[in-house]
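Example for tutorial group B:
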C-alpha cells in the first residue's frame, strides 16, 4: 500500500475550510453573497484539483458533490419559503370545493 504524500492532510484541511466558509456565506448580507460565492468558486477549483491529485478521483468527486450541494442548495431553500401561487377561483376567502359559475342549488 502506498503512503500518502506529506501534504495530503493539508489538502484535506483546505477543502474542509472551504466547506465551512461556503456554509457561512449564507450568513452574509445579500449584497455580498454573490461576490463571496464567486471567490469560493475561484478558490475551490484549485483546491478540488489538489485534493483529487493527492487523494484520488473518488474523493475528488465526493468533494465536488459536497461543494455543489452547498453552493446550489441555498437558492432552493429560498424558493421553498414563497407562498404557492393561487389559481383562478381560489381567492383568499373561497374554499377550493365551492361551486363554480353556476352557483349553489
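The residue assignment follows.
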Amino acid at each position: 500500500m502506498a503512503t500518502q504524500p506529506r501534504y495530503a492532510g493539508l489538502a484535506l484541511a483546505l477543502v474542509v475550510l472551504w466547506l465551512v466558509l461556503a456554509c457561512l456565506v449564507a450568513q452574509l448580507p445579500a449584497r455580498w453573497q454573490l461576490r463571496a460565492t464567486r471567490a469560493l468558486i475561484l478558490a475551490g477549483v484549485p483546491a478540488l484539483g489538489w485534493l483529487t491529485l493527492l487523494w484520488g478521483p473518488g474523493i475528488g468527486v465526493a468533494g465536488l458533490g459536497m461543494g455543489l450541494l452547498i453552493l446550489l442548495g441555498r437558492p432552493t431553500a429560498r424558493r421553498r419559503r414563497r407562498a404557492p401561487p393561487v389559481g383562478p377561483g381560489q381567492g383568499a376567502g373561497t374554499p377550493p370545493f365551492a361551486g363554480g359559475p353556476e352557483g349553489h342549488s
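Helices lie at 8-24, 30-55, 57-80. Compare this with the pattern of hydrophobic and polar residues in the output above.
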